[in-house]
């Protein structure tokens, strides 16, 4: 049994991770962590997650769990993730990071610390989205520059970062496929008398409403037709299952920064 510590254990993703680890034949819950002052501190992680008693209380100090835990699964905030990553590196354990919304400086730090330990980092842990990255890269190359490219994402009203990490990754994959620099061609909002769409733009548009779990569409449009590739997550379990698959995989890897393409052998 692989010993898993869940950080952000009372959150939307953390709760599903606690529940799925509790049901797993391969993983066991070694710890659950929440933010300083969180109302769930001291409570049973399973009771908080709604899956029954686990016997694992929610605590605020990740370091105290590092003797027991083999792999940390982290869906929190960029600042919290970087703190957790440093602790995991000090104790030479493994980590799976699903958090999104990092600044460029934070990403640099994540990349440098994560090289010291086995780390899987992916803005979307679902199999479907990771297969779509390959498909859209191929489509962008084949369709060529006469097809305009737009990425549209929709999420629940509580999501804090925009655009989603997945939409940004899709835009990066598309830009790389057609040899464009996303920093130059990415358009994140349109308003007013902005003129005709510029050739080569890659649009990234954000919708926030209600309880949408996570929708992503890549649209290729030209005169006379458009093609849309859409992924819709209907349950957070698709991300949580992917993260736990990554946890089982990463504990067997040498130090290095990996993504879900490595975990799923899609490279
Ligand atoms: N890669 C993927 O497949 C997916 C990625 N995500 C990403 O995961 C992240 C979390 O999403 P979600 O679960 O919806 O968010 P939630 O806000 O529901 O959960 C995050 C939890 O982390 C807690 N937290 C904050 N700081 C710390 C800390 N220092 N130590 C421990 N816990 C902490 C929060 O506590 P508090 O409430 O006090 O802030 C909260 O309970 C987001 O960045 C999201 O975009 C989400 C789904 C899938
Ligand atoms: O915050 C979320 O909910 C999600 N975040 C991820 C992202 O930003 O891409 C993945 C998923 O779509 C859900």
TrEMBL record:
<dbReference type="GO" id="GO:0008839">
    <property type="term" value="F:4-hydroxy-tetrahydrodipicolinate reductase"/>
</dbReference>
<keyword id="KW-0028">Amino-acid biosynthesis</keyword>
<keyword id="KW-0457">Lysine biosynthesis</keyword>
<feature type="binding site">
    <location>
        <begin position="98"/>
        <end position="100"/>
    </location>
    <ligand>
        <name>NAD(+)</name>
    </ligand>
</feature>
<keyword id="KW-0963">Cytoplasm</keyword>
<keyword id="KW-0521">NADP</keyword>
<keyword id="KW-0560">Oxidoreductase</keyword>
<comment type="subunit">
    <text>Homotetramer.</text>
</comment>
<feature type="binding site">
    <location>
        <position position="156"/>
    </location>
    <ligand>
        <name>(S)-2,3,4,5-tetrahydrodipicolinate</name>
    </ligand>
</feature>
<comment type="similarity">
    <text>Belongs to the DapB family.</text>
</comment>
<feature type="binding site">
    <location>
        <position position="34"/>
    </location>
    <ligand>
        <name>NAD(+)</name>
    </ligand>
</feature>
<feature type="binding site">
    <location>
        <begin position="8"/>
        <end position="13"/>
    </location>
    <ligand>
        <name>NAD(+)</name>
    </ligand>
</feature>
<dbReference type="InterPro" id="IPR023940">
    <property type="entry name" value="DHDPR_bac"/>
</dbReference>
<dbReference type="InterPro" id="IPR022664">
    <property type="entry name" value="DapB_N_CS"/>
</dbReference>
<comment type="pathway">
    <text>Amino-acid biosynthesis; L-lysine biosynthesis via DAP pathway; (S)-tetrahydrodipicolinate from L-aspartate: step 4/4.</text>
</comment>
<feature type="domain" description="Dihydrodipicolinate reductase C-terminal">
    <location>
        <begin position="128"/>
        <end position="264"/>
    </location>
</feature>
<dbReference type="Pfam" id="PF05173">
    <property type="entry name" value="DapB_C"/>
</dbReference>
<feature type="binding site">
    <location>
        <begin position="165"/>
        <end position="166"/>
    </location>
    <ligand>
        <name>(S)-2,3,4,5-tetrahydrodipicolinate</name>
    </ligand>
</feature>
<keyword id="KW-0220">Diaminopimelate biosynthesis</keyword>
<feature type="domain" description="Dihydrodipicolinate reductase N-terminal">
    <location>
        <begin position="2"/>
        <end position="125"/>
    </location>
</feature>
<dbReference type="InterPro" id="IPR000846">
    <property type="entry name" value="DapB_N"/>
</dbReference>
<dbReference type="InterPro" id="IPR036291">
    <property type="entry name" value="NAD(P)-bd_dom_sf"/>
</dbReference>
<feature type="active site" description="Proton donor">
    <location>
        <position position="159"/>
    </location>
</feature>
<dbReference type="Pfam" id="PF01113">
    <property type="entry name" value="DapB_N"/>
</dbReference>
<protein>
    <recommendedName>
        <fullName>4-hydroxy-tetrahydrodipicolinate reductase</fullName>
        <ecNumber>1.17.1.8</ecNumber>
    </recommendedName>
</protein>
<dbReference type="InterPro" id="IPR022663">
    <property type="entry name" value="DapB_C"/>
</dbReference>
<feature type="binding site">
    <location>
        <begin position="122"/>
        <end position="125"/>
    </location>
    <ligand>
        <name>NAD(+)</name>
    </ligand>
</feature>
<keyword id="KW-0520">NAD</keyword>
<comment type="function">
    <text>Catalyzes the conversion of 4-hydroxy-tetrahydrodipicolinate (HTPA) to tetrahydrodipicolinate.</text>
</comment>
<feature type="active site" description="Proton donor/acceptor">
    <location>
        <position position="155"/>
    </location>
</feature>
């Amino acid at each position: 049994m692989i010993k898993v510590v869940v950080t952000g254990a009372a959150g939307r993703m953390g709760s599903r991770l606690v529940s799925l680890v509790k049901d797993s034949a391969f993983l066991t819950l070694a710890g659950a962590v929440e933010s300083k002052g969180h109302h769930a501190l001291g409570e049973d992680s399973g009771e908080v997650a709604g899956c029954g008693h686990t016997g694992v209380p929610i605590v605020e100090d990740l370091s105290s769990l590092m003797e027991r835990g083999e792999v940390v699964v982290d869906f929190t905030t960029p600042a919290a993730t970087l703190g957790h990553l440093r602790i995991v590196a000090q104790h030479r354990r493994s980590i799976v990071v699903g958090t999104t919304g990092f600044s460029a400086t934070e990403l640099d730090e994540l990349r440098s610390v994560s090289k010291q330990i086995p780390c899987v980092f992916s803005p979307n842990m679902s199999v479907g989205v990771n297969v779509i990255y390959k498909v859209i890269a191929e489509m962008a190359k084949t369709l060529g520059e006469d097809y305009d490219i737009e990425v549209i994402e929709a999420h629940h009203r509580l999501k804090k970062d925009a655009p989603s990490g997945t939409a940004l990754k899709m835009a990066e994959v598309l830009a790389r496929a057609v040899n464009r620099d996303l920093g130059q061609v990415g358009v994140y909002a349109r308003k007013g008398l902005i003129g005709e769409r510029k050739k080569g733009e890659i649009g990234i548009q954000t919708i926030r409403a209600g309880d949408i779990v996570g929708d992503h569409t890549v649209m290729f449009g030209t005169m006379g037709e458009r093609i849309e590739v859409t992924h819709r997550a209907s349950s957070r379990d698709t991300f949580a299952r992917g993260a736990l698959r990554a946890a089982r995989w990463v504990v067997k890897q040498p130090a290095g920064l990996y993504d879900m393409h490595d975990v799923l052998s899609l490279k």
